[in-house]
Amino acid sequence: MPDANSQLEFEWFQKWFAALVDNVGQVVKGKRQEVGVTVLALFAGGHVLLEDYPGTGKTTLAKALAASVQGSWNRIQFTPDLLPADVTGGMIFNQRENHFRFHAGPIFANIVLADEINRASPKTQSALLQVMEEGQVTVDGRTYDVPGTPDPDTGAASGPFIVLATQNPIEQEGTYRLPEAQLDRFMVKLALGYPGHDAEVDMLRTVGAGYGPADIQPIVKVSQIGQMIAAVRTVHLEDTIRSYIVRLCQHTRAALPEVRLGVSPRGAVALMGMARAVAAAQGRTYVTVDDVRSMAPYVMAHRLLLTPSAELERVSPADLVARTLDAVAQPEPLRV
Hints:
13 helices, Rossmann fold, five-stranded parallel β-sheet, Helicase, Ruva Protein, domain 3, 336 residues, two-stranded parallel ribbon, 2 domains, alpha/beta
């Protein structure tokens, strides 16, 4: 790979980003923007929450992305009787060695599909808090790194780690609302929506031919993903852009009467990461205001906790983000 922070490096990044989006697009039809945002979150080192109606392709998108990366991936089907140890793993007695050894759970993988995450109990959901934030699991007083199966003696593991979670917004019976602390750990939240007519016809053609996520061939190695995550972190960010990100987040905390809790500092970090990723995906070595504005709805909306009256009036968090983008003054364009 070219030296860090060179133009060639970001041309290389742009090429592989487009290839990965195209690969997933073989089975997720007509949703290039949503697929692109999901892939950007992977390169920004974050997690993705997919919330939409049944049958819109949430699980297909997650499985297709996992299949496109030559690394480990696991699927966890969340149910009310799922226990924390079913996610993280636990200590199991080894009769041959006459002592307890750590048995890794399905969370130990490069890509984890957490299907219908809101069907699990709050106790089980809380098992994800540490691992999503720190990339670690603590069991019996000992810490183990994710992803991959950790060394039972050292607890070490390596490689990128992303949780792709899905939830259904209309069936609330038997579900548990995700707490704000857990929502804040998802870098982006997005909905796929129904495909257009031509895209749905194309989908029927693909499914009718028996082609699905399991047929997708991996095109990117885990080592490449690690290089691309490192490349995103080298994208240049002017202090004026950093200030703009902070002012957007602060506006949601102080200037929106419909909001009880605005975007957290963790949200500001997430917005910075996504802005850097979209710049790299366009082959640029620097972030622009438009990069920040294009990613703000995906990063900020799910972090807004509305007042009870705003919820009764069905105020849209997306509309509040749009108001924020209109209200906060933009910095002067970069001179390049």
